[in-house]
Hints:
Layout (H helix, E strand, L loop, with lengths): L4 H18 L5 H26 L7 H20 L15 H19 L1 H4 L7 H20 L10 E2 L1 H11 L4 H21 L2 H11 L1 H6 L4 H24 L5 E2 L6 H14 L4 H17 L7 H15 L10 H4 L3 H5 L1 H10 L1
Antiparallel strand pairs: 1-2
Helix pairs in contact: 2-8, 2-11, 2-12, 2-13, 3-4, 3-6, 3-7, 3-11, 4-11, 8-11, 9-11, 12-13
Amino acid sequence: MKKYYLPLLILVLFVGIVGGSWLHVFNEYWQLVxxxxxxxxxxxxxxxxxxxxxxxxxxxxxxxxxVGAYVSSILTVWLFADDKIFGPPVLPxxxxxPLFPVILIIGAIAASxxxxxxxxxxxxxxxxxxxxxTLAVNYIVKSAIENMEVIGGPRGFVGMKRVxxxxxxxxxxxxxxxxxxxxxxxxxxxxxxxxxxxxxKGIEAIREDEIAAELMSVNxxxxxxxxxxxxxxLAGLAGGLFAHGPGGYINPGTFTILKSxxxxxMVYLGGMGxxxxxxxxxxxxxxxLELLRPLGTYKWxxxxxxxxxxxxxxxxxxxxxxxxxxxxxKLRAIFGAEEENYAHAAN
Length: 347
């Protein structure tokens, strides 16, 4: 039964946090902070699949986040909100609750298909050249959205707040927080199980030596496509959740290279190839941004300085390429034999 302890502990934590927010134990500000923590965890863990486990260098994650954000937002507003562009809602508000996660998945699928713009060029490029391609894709997506006047162009797209209000009117619950935590848990389990599978071993082989991996009959092209599409799809999932936040407003200026850089900072801060490190760094970085909020724009001076210090004294990040069970072996007794086997496989 030990192998089930970890899911049970996470489930208890999830119920406690969501239930506490529902009962207004946390005020609206802390609910928002928790929401951004969950979204940042999804972004960081997903990008770590490419930059950490596969050893590539992608710096355009915000572009795929934008695809998921706009696709899911357009669908929810069209289906469940009275909008001046799309007209009256197509479906009643009561359908929004069960169909909302389906729409998030559709947005994730759209983002994963957009990931082919990076996956296919990755067959012939690596390192800095692939980084330039991902940066170009980020700007392509941003520029394309800016030139689509039907969805607001550079002014942005609104209406998602009405969708969330309609869901709350049917049944009062922190729906976005609930689906964010479910998406976060799903992302962690998907990446964890993917990396412990045969595909994951092939991904790690590509990181060590792509030519040697091909000589050992690893289908590197297939694995790159799968990894990029999976990572970009999860970024689209995070984008869909982000778009339906309290503001109910998104614009192309949100998904710039600065947003991609934030995600990369969290990946390298936590440690390359470490799911636990990604989770810890996403939580810590979100809290750090809030603590430094009184500094205004000066916080972007303090944060880089802290990162410079981090890279000088801990260049491998918080956990390096290790998991918490490697740093604290006694945790394996809690997480069970399955987690222990995964930890050994990672080494």
